[in-house]
UniProtKB/TrEMBL annotation:
Belongs to the class-I pyridoxal-phosphate-dependent aminotransferase family. This is Aminotransferase. It holds the Pfam family Aminotran_1_2. Keywords: Aminotransferase, Pyridoxal phosphate, Transferase. The keyword Nuclease does not apply. Its cofactor is pyridoxal 5'-phosphate.
Length: 383
């Protein structure tokens, strides 16, 4: 068997979910809302499956969805994409990432990864024959600088994989961060694969700027978005890929031999959803921000050292400030003794892991968050 997968142990996500069930815990480890998603978008999918086309849709995606994606990004990010030659629909953002890495990596190419990182990145890079080079981000600010990039980028660097906002830390990178990364990409003639799935989940009225909008990046960026994150419908697995035509043609070949197409009723519903009034997107962010604030305030009142969360569904707690140095053992204790599941942030590192941060998902109902806070209790009793 392929050792990249055969030698991979049970993931901490699977472990924590199993322990959560075993101990009847409130699961704040898994990153999905307990809300069913917008009813009108779900109704559009139901109507489409009953009254619409249910055979193979076009490989690149339904024309109406590709047009809706183009209109959406022009409206929200002032980026013009040609729906015919620069946009593709995939079966989720992870498929888009896998296809992009398979299409663009040749064996021995180096790929720069920022850690902590989504757990799929590293095995996908290695399976495609890439050699990972890491930029290691550390609390409390989770930022990179020029020296860190200089150590990671080199003559064999082909790609950089960049997630903004960043899961698991909730960091939204600043314009200065993006400008620095763009300059390095241009200087090294590197393609950026941008995992922008959280682009609409940004809080406190902070602006969101994609890397593709930075000088020199329009023709060297693969931008990936997710309907699942935009509409809190994570099980739908509808992703978007945007890239200049010569890049997209190669990405489409990889997509052709992975999933080929995505359910047409879901594509129809997403096309409808992307055209929703701006008030939907504002209300979605406001609701998640309110949940973040409610949970953060509850933790803080109980003595938990909460780190800022600028976006995503997640916030982190700095257990190092509680005198603890083993996030895995802490999470196992938490699920067994307090019956609340969280995720150790060290699971998002390949090397030199930070062992003093724990991730909670706050995209839950008030009742779920309040019950979790009651179970967690005072932080001092766990230190």
């Amino acid at each position: 068997m392929n050792p990249i997968f055969a030698e991979t142990g049970t993931s901490v996500f699977e472990t924590m979910s199993r322990l959560s069930v075993q101990h009847g815990a409130i699961n704040l480890g898994q990153g999905f809302p307990d809300d069913p998603g917008p009813r009108d978008v779900r109704e559009a999918a139901a109507t489409a499956v009953l009254d619409g086309w249910n055979q193979y849709p076009p490989m690149l995606g339904l024309p109406q969805l590709r047009q809706a994606i183009a209109a959406h990004y022009q409206r929200f990010q002032a980026i013009d994409f040609d729906p015919l030659s620069e946009i593709m629909v995939t079966s989720g953002a992870t498929e888009a990432l896998a296809g992009a890495l398979m299409a663009l990596i040749e064996p021995g190419d180096e790929v720069v990864l920022f850690q902590p990182m989504y757990d799929a990145y590293l095995p996908l890079v290695r399976r495609a024959g890439g050699v990972p080079r890491f930029v290691t981000l550390r609390p409390p600010h989770w930022r990179f600088d020029e020296d860190m990039l200089a150590r990671a980028f080199g003559p064999r660097t082909k790609l950089v994989l960049f997630n903004n906002p960043l899961n698991p830390t909730g960091t939204v990178f600043s314009g200065e961060d993006l400008a620095l990364l763009a300059r390095v990409c241009v200087a090294h003639d590197v393609i950026a694969i941008c995992d922008d799935v959280w682009e609409h989940v940004v809080f406190d009225d902070n602006p969101y700027t994609p890397l593709i909008a930075c000088p020199g990046m329009r023709d060297r960026t693969v931008k990936i978005g997710s309907a699942g994150k935009i509409f809190s419908l994570t099980g739908w697995k509808v992703g978007f890929v945007m890239a200049q035509p010569s890049l997209l043609r190669v990405l489409a070949r990889a997509h052709q031999f992975i999933t080929f197409t995505t359910p047409p009723n879901l594509q129809t519903a997403v096309a409808y959803g992307l055209g929703k009034d701006e008030s939907y997107f504002r209300t979605m962010r406001t609701g998640l921000q309110r949940s973040r604030d409610r949970f953060a305030a509850g933790l803080t009142a109980r003595g938990w050292p909460v780190a800022p969360s600028q976006g995503t569904y997640f916030l982190t707690v700095d257990i190092g400030r509680m005198g603890l140095v083993d996030d895995i053992a802490f999470c196992e204790t938490l699920v067994r003794e307090r019956r609340v599941a969280a995720i150790p942030v060290s699971a998002f590192y390949a090397e030199d892991a930070i062992r003093t941060a724990v991730r909670f998902c706050f995209a839950k109902s008030d009742e779920t968050l309040d019950a979790a806070l009651d179970r967690l209790g005072q932080a001092g009793s766990l230190a």
